[in-house]
TrEMBL record:
Residues 84-127, 165-200, 262-305, 1119-1141, 1178-1228 are annotated as: Disordered. Belongs to the peptidase S8 family. Residues 201-250 form the Membrane-bound transcription factor site-1 protease-like N-terminal domain. The keyword Transmembrane applies. GO terms for molecular function: serine-type endopeptidase activity. It comes from the Eukaryota. Residues 1184-1195 have a biased composition (Basic residues). This is Uncharacterized protein. GO terms for cellular component: Golgi apparatus. The lineage of its organism: Eukaryota, Choanoflagellata, Craspedida, Salpingoecidae, Salpingoeca. InterPro entries: MBTP1_N (IPR055143), MBTPS1_3rd (IPR057060), MBTPS1_4th (IPR057032), Peptidase_S8/S53_dom (IPR000209), Peptidase_S8/S53_dom_sf (IPR036852), Peptidase_S8_His-AS (IPR022398), Peptidase_S8_Ser-AS (IPR023828), Peptidase_S8_subtilisin-like (IPR050131). Gene3D superfamilies: Peptidase S8/S53 domain (3.40.50.200). Residues 84-99, 1201-1228 have a biased composition (Polar residues). Residues 344-604 form the Peptidase S8/S53 domain.
Length: 1228
């Protein structure tokens, strides 16, 4: 059996070897120190063996002795030799007497298959939601091996699920003229349902046609065809194998290149970018022909091969009033390092982009160009990759890179159409690992932070010491628009500024969205640098200026390469890693003075020279980001500084990223500690901490919750303190048992006020928001087709930030709820804000709200959005990669769920979608794809507006059938009720205000100016439910009091979509029409700092002795092939089970049984003899016990009778806590 290959490691990856030694020593129990205690060891051991053998016999009798029809380890068998694996046979060609007849038969067969496929596709398109019968799966493994070996494991595993006809299943194989009909047999796997017999369920392993083929791999792409109804079964079968970590569908990488246009905040899309490059190419060709007056062949122009003179000529095109192209080098002060001899020499930089042309005149150190796409081309047909690589290491006079002597490795991962796949990145990432590059630049980004293989591979790269720099995105100025992978802890996420040190409008803002809704996002970006009008080389060598975080990212990459060259070669394995570089950038960055927050600028602008000084004296240590938490530091710590802390409010949550330069892995050996600076404030603030189980890929997280203790409900002031976190890591010296340790101190400052009155407290519902990823939750404004997904968090600190800021400035205290309504006392709040919910509501939640409104005077403000099944059907799209139709899980909001919540008051939204503008308080307000009111109770007030309905263009059904976003057209304008005001008639009842659109306060669809126009309307809705008649009367005057109930028209009532799979992503549903159990509300064990030495330990569960295996453990320990499990032994990885050769043969079982019986007999005889000796020496043992007792008493009396003086009194201590030596020392 061939062993799975182990991936070679760099010299500096030996740190964790000693961890395994230490753990193995810890697992060894204490040795028996006295021979007299060894007596019962033999019988106990023998009896244990007997029990073990008996259990194995019972298991084998229960079905382990199979006929080989099952599979080992939960039904997943493995095969390392593909020649020994069983695979579904492909249809063999017919045996024909002549080649001509064979060709005719093949053509007829192909034509018939095409017609059948076309018919099936049309049928599936009519049945919306049906998945086409082909899908590509990325299967990730626990260890690296030869691609053929891993393919064998998949073949064997799938062969156990979909196989040819077997005699044991009672099936037979039919063969006619060489044709084979494939059927499926039931599987003995308990983890996967048996397949029904399809006739065309096949799979194939996609071949790898790139440089990575020369090295081991840890993933395989499987093309599954014809297994439409068995997708879940195939997933379960593959995931049940012990050597497979994950099975995900291949994705079209939604991470576009991040150049920005010259507009304020518009993303530069691939089509426009390529078009501009084409126009520039044509202009350059014309000028080349006019000035050189030479005939050149068109093929040479397409191959981008030009002479140095032409490049110099085209480089002069930049001299038409453009800013000085050398401003980047001057602004970064890179020449100060160049003059010292540091230019990036010896540092290898990988650029993942659109490629680079051959023999480009502006690059002197291109070590390698590789292509990972399906195009047979290494050149850059777009210009994106050329520009990015040039900013890093160009040697051009007009637009030099920051590290001109760095070694560039070009990875072409995007086609000329800007298409890429996850598997292309995975192969390229693995190749970069084997090439041992130091820095990797990704000027790409996208919102999908749940692309599991991609995210996991990024973690592995950084764990191996590769410094990854990525653009943060071009979706600003809206908050909550960070792109992946720049939003990951171990990646340096870069935002953009202009040369006036102001945040670029296009630069994406934080917070991260991974933690919502239960927690709070992390701080990103990490740093910012120049990303506006930066000069770099074009395809043909001429300099040009471009903007975007795609520009800012290579600026930091070039700076990192330049800084890395400062570290001596012999020290780089120890000092050059993702954390050391990130610490250098974060610790020395210059905070901007433009009023931007920490979620816009991170640590500030990169300070190259200060970072160089930092690295020159760097010692590996741990640090926190952010290094402090200050609620008084405004606007930098906004939105934290916009609201104070008080008793009874929702806990304040702040996340800290812990960076450890000690080793790729680490842990927290003790609980965090908190010291209060002022002893008088020790009981004011209560803290609780949670943290990641371990530090992985050089980083971990610690979350801090803060609230005010009941004793301080009337306290007003500032509470300061220091949070101390200890980090440990494996020994630096291999073989040593001395762990590395570093202490992190975080300064905290809380602004505490007395609990505000109820009428000033508002509760924002964030629990019922379900953004992308992973589900398809569509946009709220249907006209905005450029971004079809709702992915900005729907949080008051992201895309609803303008509204939240206005409410805070108006004196309201806005708290965010990340749990069900039942987890909070609604009587503490004046109003509940429900904005654009996509989630369902628990039945108990509805009852809880009804009671609070009817009996406790709670006010409710609802901002809904559109919901229409026809439009949901129209905006579906077909994913060419997963072979899936993507259907919206809801509309802009989950209107049917809102109607369930409001049903008891007779309020109901409709399925009518309207769009337009109306005036309110001399302000023009945009109503973008909102809904209308279908039912409203008598006595309520309805406000209408003249708007136009939106519906699907019936004449454009061709687009719908082909998965394109159909045209949403507008009808004739009319009056539609969009605002409803209702006073609950009970004496203690509250008020309800509903509005049919949330887009007007969504920063994603409006500029800050337009959003500000809508805010007064929303505030008047709020003032109405708070019974502030001075402003609520404004709306009442505009409306009409209902003299009778408004009843909904049957055709206007929204119905839940039949194709939606909301339960997959829901926290409320566990089936399409079945609610999950109500979650248990969290109850934090708040601990008040006690000034006992100034230190109090706060709550956190200590790490387990055996933490789960992480990325670094996977790197250091790659299981050999015999541990992966091939089903040929007695089970794989401790998993027995029969079938597939996984069980024991009867002869082996009989031998084992006899051996066990023999051991049992020996144990029994030994036990009898030991018992006899024990009885015979009972008297001797009793005598010895009495002798030891009297000897101890005599020794104790003699010790107490020792002479003492009055000047040395005896100190009374507890002997239970002191050793004998210590006790005697205290007694003297």
């Amino acid at each position: 059996m061939t062993a799975i290959g182990t991936l070679p490691l760099a010299d500096d990856d030996e740190d964790t070897n000693a961890v395994a030694v230490v753990r193995s020593r810890q697992m060894q129990g204490p040795r028996w120190k006295r021979r007299r205690k060894r007596g019962p060891l033999l019988p106990v051991f023998g009896m244990a063996l007997v029990v073990m053998v008996t259990i194995m016999v019972v298991m084998m009798a229960g079905g382990a002795w199979g006929d080989g029809g099952g599979v080992g380890h939960g039904g997943a068998s493995a095969c390392l030799d593909p020649d020994q694996c069983t695979q579904v046979p492909r249809q063999a060609p017919r045996q024909s007497p002549s080649l001509q007849q064979q060709q005719q038969q093949q053509q007829q067969q192909q034509q018939t298959e095409q017609e059948q496929q076309q018919t099936e596709q049309e049928q599936k398109e009519v049945r919306s939601g049906e998945v086409l019968p082909q899908v590509k799966l990325i299967v990730m493994f626990t260890s690296y091996a030869n691609h053929t070996q891993l393919a064998g494991i998949i073949n064997a595993t799938l062969a156990a699920q979909v196989t040819t006809q077997s005699q044991s299943a009672g099936k037979h194989r039919e063969s006619t003229d060489g044709d084979t009909t494939t059927t499926a047999r039931p599987s003995s796997s308990p983890s996967a349902a048996p397949l029904t017999p399809p006739t065309n369920c096949t799979w194939s392993i996609l071949e790898r046609r790139n440089r990575a083929l020369e090295f081991p791999t840890d993933f395989v792409v499987v093309d599954i065809s014809g297994c439409l109804h068995h997708r879940d079964t195939i997933h379960a079968a593959l995931q049940s194998h012990p050597s497979i970590t994950s099975v995900t569908e291949e994705k079209h990488v939604n991470r576009g290149t991040l150049f920005a246009s010259h507009g304020p905040h518009v993303r530069h899309h691939a089509s426009s970018w390529a078009q501009e490059q084409q126009q520039e190419h044509q202009q350059q060709q014309q000028q080349q022909q006019q000035q050189q007056q030479q005939q050149q062949q068109q093929q040479q122009q397409q191959q981008r091969r030009h002479t140095l003179g032409l490049s110099d000529l085209l480089r002069g095109l930049m001299d038409r009033g453009d800013s000085d192209s050398s401003n980047l080098v001057a602004a970064m002060r890179a020449r100060s390092l160049w003059e010292l001899g540091y230019k990036g020499q010896g540092i290898h930089v990988a650029v993942f982009d659109t490629g680079l042309g051959a023999d480009h005149p502006d690059f002197a150190h291109v070590d390698e160009r590789t292509n990972w796409t399906d195009e047979d081309d290494l050149n850059d047909g777009i210009g994106h990759g050329t520009f990015v690589a040039g900013v890093v290491a160009s040697t051009s006079r007009g637009c030099p890179g920051l590290a001109p002597e760095a070694h560039v490795h070009v990875y072409r991962v995007f086609t000329n159409a800007q298409v890429s796949y996850t598997s292309w990145f995975l192969d390229a990432f693995n190749y970069a690992i084997f090439k041992k590059v130091h820095v990797l630049n990704l000027s790409i980004g996208g919102p999908d932070f749940m692309d599991e293989p991609f995210v996991a591979k990024v973690n592995e790269l950084t764990a191996r010491g590769i410094i990854m720099v990525s653009a943060i995105g071009n979706d600003g100025p809206v908050f909550g628009t960070l792109n992946n992978p720049g939003d990951q802890n171990n990646v340096i996420g870069v935002g953009g500024i202009d040369f006036k040190d102001q945040i670029a409008p296009f630069s994406s803002r934080g917070m991260t969205l991974w933690e919502l809704p239960h927690g709070y996002g992390r701080v990103k970006p990490d740093v910012v640098t120049y990303g506006t009008d930066v000069a770099g080389p074009g395809i043909f060598g001429a300099c040009r200026t471009l903007s975007g975080t795609s520009v800012a990212s290579p600026v930091v990459t070039g700076a990192v390469a330049l800084l890395a060259s400062i570290i001596p070669t012999e020290d780089r394995p120890r000092l050059l890693n993702p954390t050391s570089m990130k610490q250098a950038l974060l610790s020395t960055a210059t905070r901007l003075s433009d009023g931007s927050t920490i979620f816009e600028q991170g640590a500030g602008k990169v300070n190259l020279t200060a970072a160089a000084v930092f690295l020159d004296t760097y010692t590996p240590h741990a640090s926190a980001w952010p290094p402090a938490f200050n609620m008084s530091d405004c606007p930098y710590f906004s939105p934290y500084c916009q609201q104070s802390l008080y008793f009874g409010g929702q806990p304040l949550i702040a996340n800290f990223t812990i960076l450890s330069g000690l080793a790729p892995t680490g842990w927290f050996p003790s609980l965090p500690e908190f010291r209060s600076v002022n002893p008088k404030h020790a009981h004011v603030v209560q803290l609780a901490f949670t943290s990641s189980p371990r530090l992985v890929s050089w980083a971990g997280t610690v979350a801090m919750k803060a609230t005010v203790s009941p004793q301080a409900r009337m306290f007003r002031g500032v509470v300061r303190g220091v949070v101390t976190i200890t980090v440990e890591a494996p020994p630096q010296v291999p073989g040593s048992d001395r762990m590395q340790r570093s202490t992190v101190e975080i300064g905290v400052e809380f602004d505490v006020v007395p609990t505000p009155p109820r009428e000033r407290r508002l509760l924002w519902d964030a629990f019922h928001s379900l953004p992308y990823p992973p589900g398809y939750f569509p946009r709220d404004a249907l006209k905005h087709k450029s971004d079809p997904l709702d992915w900005n968090g729907d949080h008051p600190h992201t895309n609803y930030r303008t509204l939240a800021t206005h409410l805070a400035a108006s004196g309201y205290h806005l708290e965010v709820l990340g749990s069900p309504y039942t987890c909070v006392d609604l009587s503490d709040y004046a109003a509940l804000l429900i904005v654009d919910p996509e989630e369902e509501f628990f039945t108990d939640e509805i009852k809880h709200v009804e009671k609070a409104v009817n009996e406790q005077g709670l006010g409710v403000v609802v901002l809904a959005d559109w919901y229409n099944r026809d439009i949901m059907q129209a905006i579906q799209f077909y994913d060419e990669n997963t072979r899936n139709w993507w259907h919206p899980e809801t509309g802009g909001a989950n209107v049917p769920a809102l109607n369930d919540l409001l049903q008891s008051w007779g309020i109901e939204f409709s399925n009518v979608v309207v769009d337009g503008k109306f005036s309110y308080q001399e302000q023009v307000i945009q109503y973008q794809s909102g809904t209308t009111l279908a039912a409203f109770p008598r006595g309520g007030v309805l406000v209408s507006a003249i708007l136009a309905p939106q519906h699907v263009d019936d004449s454009n059904q061709h687009h719908q059938q082909h998965g394109r976003d159909s045209d949403i057209v507008a009808g004739e304008t009319s009056h539609y009720p969009i605002i409803g005001l209702y006073q609950v008639p009970a004496s203690s009842g509250g008020r309800i205000a509903v509005y049919g659109d949330s887009s007007c306060v969504d920063d994603k669809y409006n500029s800050a100016h337009h959003t500000a126009r809508c805010v007064p309307l929303i505030q008047d809705l709020l003032e109405y439910v708070l019974d502030h008649n001075d402003r609520g009367e404004n709306l009442i005057k505009l409306g009409q009091v209902m003299q009778r109930d408004l009843r909904p028209h049957p055709n206007a009532q929204p119905r839940r979509s039949d194709n939606a799979t909301l339960h997959i992503y829901s926290r409320v549903l566990q089936a399409p029409s079945e609610q999950a159990p109500l979650p248990i509300c969290s109850h934090d064990k708040w601990i008040t700092p006690i000034m006992d030495g100034g230190v109090v330990q706060t709550t956190r569960t200590p790490p387990h002795d055996a933490p789960r295996q992480d990325v670094s453990a996977r790197i250091q320990h790659v299981r050999p092939a015999d541990e992966v499990g091939d089903g040929s032994g007695a089970g794989a990885r401790g998993g027995g089970g029969g079938g597939g050769g996984g069980g024991l043969s009867p002869i082996s079982a009989a031998v084992l049984l006899l051996l066990g019986m023999a051991v049992g007999v020996v144990a029994f005889v030994g036990f009898k003899r030991w018992r006899a000796r024990r009885r015979g020496s009972a008297v001797e043992r009793e005598h010895a016990r009495h002798h030891r007792y009297h000897h101890h008493q005599q020794h104790r009396m003699s010790f107490m009778a020792s002479p003492t003086t009055d000047t040395h009194p005896t100190i009374s201590t507890s002997s239970s806590n002191l050793s004998p030596t210590t006790a005697r020392t205290f007694a003297v």
